[in-house]
Design goal:
Layout lengths: L13 H9 L7 H19 L12 H15 L4 H14 L7 H9 L17 H31 L4 H16 L6 E2 L21 H14 L4 H6 L3 H16 L6 H13 L4 H13 L15 H4 L2 H9 L6 H8 L8 H23 L12 E2 L14 H19 L12 H13 L6 H17 L12 H4 L23 E2 L5 H12 L3 H14 L4 E2 L2 E2 L4 H14 L2 E2 L6 H6 L2 H12 L6 H5 L7 H31 L2
Parallel strand pairs: 3-6
Antiparallel strand pairs: 1-2, 4-5
Length: 639
């Protein structure tokens, strides 16, 4: 592509071209990101124009581009991925070049865009040979662009910087004007359950939410769909981003590639292709061994030894025993330190519970991942060469499909739902009661909830066979959730919070072995639990504390945890059967949640309120897994 004029003309490698255009995906401040896109758009334009591929005269475009990218590298946020690319750019910038000032003047002074020499020796060949090479080289350069078109498509929709979105759209328009295939979205918005117009959007959300979207974009090289859905609740999103960034990128005993592969293992237990795709990409960016992505059989034995704990925590955390911790810490050269074990446990529980949120909110695949985009018909239609018509038509079809899906799930007359007015009255009645139950009665009411939950059916269809690209990361797929009341192990008793709680025990244990993470987790738990706007389904001045506590404690009851001071009779009064069934599915079988299931519960609630319920499912589940694991670690330490 862009070359320097020298006595020994060198051909620019494919990896160099890919590295330059990949710069647009680096985290940068908005003005730097826009400058990068200006450079990239010029590169794309020259690549796609066959008449600009070969020319006898040299030009200075390559050096101009490298000068821009060198400046961008120095201004970007530091990180392990950026450091590697920056060194590569610096290495290429030291290549010999003797470009003359007159050449630069010619390149910049012509009214028409300069034509870029490819660096091969075809300039002295005959016309027919040059035309063949033109076609070949143009095709090679389009292949380079095509690799990044899905990323450009994502930035059109999911970037918090408006000018960057506009620039990316102009790049795709340029591709279409060249009558070349351009990707279009296969999904409409961050969630398949919530219409895009009803979600917080980058350009119309409040200032705090927009700032958090920018933070998420800079932390993760993308504004992912999970963050956009969580944008309903900015105070929670802030805590979530801090915690996730710390456990994956902050100080800690585990190497960065281990962290992301552990996340892949965790997401695999619920067949969550969305999280697996994100973490595979992060794993490679952190220098992870690509062979590991071939499956569990290709990973180091040290990581392989973690899998039993992963499986147990995901489905039946009450089965975790000190022997599992001992197996990790006393296995010769593959032994784990206790600090590494706790770090791994935090990552596992974070991604197990995040699977619940992804599925229960219908989070769509990212636009640049498999299932997020497509090339219509394989080739562009002749009648759709006008800029953005193809993409607009595709999106319009999907919007109609989305609307049709809405109408396909009307409230079922056979499934009566307690209205919000009745629910508010019940909360008021409970708050006015002064009679206290005896400890025996409280224990009996908890047992009733256990038995009822075991009899409760699971909603949603049973998932099909595990897809091949996910099965690589799954061992013993038949090991699933079992109702605690039906457990076969008679020696395992109900987990009583008065004996080991997060506040009194778990918090200090995790902070002692993994500095500062306990504080972050505690803030996240409390934010989700205490979050309220004093509204419910459009009603204002509503005290929702009892309803929130009922949801939190019901999720933990599913996992065999009892809060001794809580009257579990309130759950039956405030949480109807259909909502219990939804929450059991979201917590224990999240891959079964469908839009039909989502639409049939909490029908009077706003989408933001449904998302809030799903956040409490996420956090209550994570806390439950954590206290089981940390109690086991604590017992191991005191053996």
């Amino acid at each position: 592509m862009f070359v320097q004029a020298s006595s020994n003309v060198q051909k620019r490698s494919t990896s160099d071209d890919l590295e330059d255009i990949t710069k647009l995906c680096e985290p940068k401040a908005s003005d730097v990101q826009e400058l990068a896109l200006d450079v990239v758009s010029k590169m794309v334009e020259s690549w796609l124009d066959p008449t600009n591929v070969i020319q006898e005269q040299p030009c200075a475009c390559r050096q101009d581009v490298l000068d821009h990218i060198g400046t961008l590298c120095r201004m970007t946020v530091p990180g392990p991925t950026l450091d590697r690319r920056q060194k590569s750019t610096e290495k290429r910038s030291k290549e010999p070049h003797d470009q003359s000032q007159s050449d630069r003047a010619t390149c910049n002074g012509n009214e028409k865009r300069p034509r870029c020499n490819t660096g091969d020796k075809t300039a002295s060949r005959g016309p027919s040979e040059q035309e063949n090479d033109n076609r070949k080289t143009a095709s090679e350069y389009f292949d380079l662009v095509a690799l990044h078109l899905p990323i450009i498509l994502r930035l059109c929709f999911a970037c918090p910087f408006g000018r960057v979105r506009e620039k990316c759209r102009s790049i795709l328009e340029l591709v279409r004007k060249r009558e070349l295939p351009a990707p279009v979205p296969m999904v409409l918005g961050p969630s398949s359950f919530i219409q895009p117009s009803q979600l917080p959007f980058m350009g119309t959300c409040n200032e705090k939410t927009h700032t958090l979207f920018v933070d998420a974009f800079l932390q993760n090289n993308r504004l992912d769909h999970v963050s956009q859905v969580m944008g309903y609740h900015s105070s929670y999103l802030e805590q979530f981003l801090k915690t996730q960034n710390y456990i994956l990128r902050g100080d800690g005993p585990l190497p960065f590639d281990y962290r992301h592969f552990i996340a892949i293992m965790a997401a695999g237990r619920h067949q969550c292709s969305y999280l697996i795709a994100l973490q595979k990409q992060e794993f490679l960016l952190q220098g992870g061994d690509q062979n590991w992505l071939r499956g569990l059989k290709c990973i180091p034995q040290k990581l392989r030894n973690l899998y039993d704990i992963n499986k147990i925590l995901a489905h039946r955390p009450w089965l975790l025993h000190t022997s599992h911790i001992e197996k990790l810490t006393k296995c010769g050269k593959d032994s784990w330190s206790l600090a590494e074990v706790v770090h791994a446990i935090v990552i596992l529980t974070h991604f197990h519970s995040l699977c619940s949120f992804v599925f229960s909110c219908g989070v769509n695949q990212e636009l640049d991942h498999a299932g997020g985009y497509e090339y219509p018909g394989g080739q562009p239609s002749r009648e759709n060469h006008d800029g953005g018509h193809t993409a607009h038509s595709a999106l319009r079809r999907r919007e109609l499909d989305w609307t049709d899906t809405l109408g396909a799930c009307p409230p079922s007359p056979t499934e009566p739902e307690v209205g919000i007015t009745t629910l508010m009255q019940r909360m008021k009645t409970l708050s006015e009661q002064t009679e206290e139950c005896t400890p025996v009665e409280l224990a009996k009411r908890f047992e009733n909830i256990e038995v009822q939950s075991a009899e409760l059916g699971v909603v949603g269809p049973e998932p099909q066979e595990t897809p091949a690209d996910i099965s690589y990361f799954v061992d013993d797929p038949t090991f699933q959730y079992q109702d605690f009341a039906k457990r076969a192990e008679s020696d395992i008793h109900t987990f009583r919070v008065q004996d080991y709680s997060w506040d009194d025990h778990g918090y200090s244990t995790v902070n002692r072995l993994y500095n500062d993470v306990g504080t972050l987790l505690d803030s996240k738990f409390k934010t989700a639990y205490n979050l309220t706007y004093n509204t419910m389904g459009g009603r204002t001045d509503v005290d929702t504390s009892r309803f929130r506590r009922a949801i939190w404690n019901y999720i933990q009851a599913l996992l065999g945890i009892r809060h001794d001071d809580y009257d579990y009779g309130e759950i039956n009064a405030l949480v109807e059967k259909s909502l219990k069934s939804f929450m059991k599915t979201a917590c224990c079988y999240p891959e079964r949640v469908t839009k039909k299931v989502y639409d049939r519960v909490m029908r009077e609630f706003e989408h933001s309120e449904k998302v809030h319920v799903n956040l409490m499912v996420l956090e209550s589940r994570m806390q439950a897994e954590l206290i089981y694991a940390l109690r086991t670690v604590n017992r191991y330490m005191t053996m």
